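re: ur question from earlier - yeah i can do the single chain one, its not a big deal. heres the input i used so u can compare w yours
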Amino acid sequence: MADAISMTSEENEVTLGCFEVGGRMIAIDVANVREVVRWQPVTPLPRSPALIDGVIDLRGALVPVVDLGRALNGRRIEPSTGTRFVVAETDGLILGLTVDSAVEVLQVSAASMEDPPTLATQAGYDVARAVVRMPGSEPIVVLSLEYLLESVYRSVLTTHEDAA
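and the output i got, formated as tokens:
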């Protein structure tokens, strides 16, 4: 787990960005977060993979956008004043993730990070890289950006099958 999540070496803590998606808290390792920006209209890309909503222009760079509500729960996020894009980087790729709101940055001990339940992972659940348990609050799922990218790649098949 230590190699998959960024930790401060001295304190053995993990820094997570927490975001609301569909009424649930989702966390992303801050090592993968470039910035969080206000929502802006997304320009659709014709015949793009089903999970890519389009692109935004971020200071002269085009950033593909994935709606996390749709990708994780099947329900699109309705833009509001709190809606944000989390600009993340993984495997050398930059993407914008639409979230309902940015909540906080958490420092948690590595000991509070657990692997997802075995039954879930054996059944093919790989959305979560880890689950954070903290006293007095619901567990927080730490999103696997690699899973998200794989979902985007698989959505290409859906897009091309629908067009056929």
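The two ends are 42 Å apart (CA to CA). not sure if urs matches, ping me
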